[in-house]
Amino acid sequence: MGLLEELTKETGILPSSITSLSIEEMENRVREIKLRLGKKLFIPGHHYQKDEVIQFADAVGDSLQLAQISAENKEADYIVFCGVHFMAETADILTDEDQSVILPDMRAGCSMADMADIYQTEKAWTKLMEMFGDTIIPLTYVNSTAAIKSFVGMNGGATVTSSNAHKMVEWALGEKPRILFLPDQHLGRNTAADLGVSLSEMAVWDPLLNELVYDGEIDEVKVILWKGHCSVHENFTVKNTEDIRKNHPDMKIIVHPECRREVVEKSDLNGSTKFIIETIEQSPQGSAWAIGTEMNLVKRLIHRHPDKTIVSLNPYMCPCLTMNRIDLPHLLWSLENILEGNPENIIKVEKEVSKNAIFALERMLTRA
């Protein structure tokens, strides 16, 4: 590979053979390649992806759901995952060895997942063991790296989703007196509070300071929350809810539990992406909703439900920037490379990491 080709690959800059095409030409080419590859190709697309990508998805859903669907598809040689890096990792963990999982743009990461790296987590675990002894079970949101899932699996813990977090936190607190919840403090806090854990029984682990931050008595700590968050959902504020209540008193507010505790408390409903979608779908004609989640999905719900009034809880919210890395040109580029027998951006999780991550996933799947 020449220097220019190497730089192009590393920075995500696409070749002129792709960028010189019109949108219509790119769309037609994607359709043509999909037809030629047939069942050898499978394209899962996350709910937060752009419409220009979602239109070509063979399945649309949440990250774990898409990884599971990919694993069930034994005919596909290539799984082009339209999502972010940790999602493609989970798909690789669950799919067969001879299947290749591809991420169209390697820059499509997740800021939340990146807030808990394995080195910080191992340091934190050592210190927490010194403080509390063997009284902690780790849980990690599926929105985490394969290395974190592996760490959790190796230490007797499990993964959780926003749909089953309540069941999994309840299970974990039945196993040991304390949990360490990675990497999203808001989902952990909201879930624990719903289960009756008081805020004084929660502490926050700050990975940058490598210390535990708490207000109450340390012996009473039940839930240790990793100091991480979703950069999209944290941007919904109490003022957003107050503005809706003032200007649209008949409008219901529904938010994702990755939002701050105070925002969830002032909302009418909160739940996973699937819960939000199903709630809007099942709501009566003429109902009005302010939704606190990613903008691409909100716009799609607005388009699909013209009989309802739907707005974003935060009118100035932008789509998830890393999700938006996956666009039509990068999707086409990935498919062209497959067709030429030179697939790029293959996501491969090491066998030992994968094995322990599966332990964490299986503990969840057998209980949730």
Write a concise synopsis of the structure shown.
The protein is an alpha/beta fold.
Description:
By secondary structure, the chain is of the alpha/beta class. It has 3 domains: 3-109 and 323-348, 3-Layer(aba) Sandwich (Rossmann fold); 113-231, NadA-like (Rossmann fold), CATH 3.40.50; 233-312, Rossmann fold. Helices cover 44% and strands 15% of the residues. It has helices at 3-11, 16-19, 23-37, 51-54, 63-72, 85-94, 111-114, 118-132, 146-154, 165-175, 185-194, 238-247, 261-265, 273-282, 295-304, 328-339, 351-365, and strands at residues 41-42, 44-46, 59-61, 78-80, 100-102, 136-141, 158-160, 178-182, 202-206, 211-213, 223-226, 252-255, 269-270, 288-292, 309-312. The strands form 4 sheets. Strands 7-6-8-11-9-10 form a 6-stranded mixed beta sheet, sandwiched between helices. The protein has a 4-stranded parallel beta sheet with strand order 13-12-14-15, with helices on one face. Strands 1-4-5 form a 3-stranded parallel beta sheet, sandwiched between helices. A hairpin with a 4-residue loop joins strand 9 and strand 10 (211-213). Helix 9 (146-154) packs across helix 17 (351-365). 45% of the residues are buried.
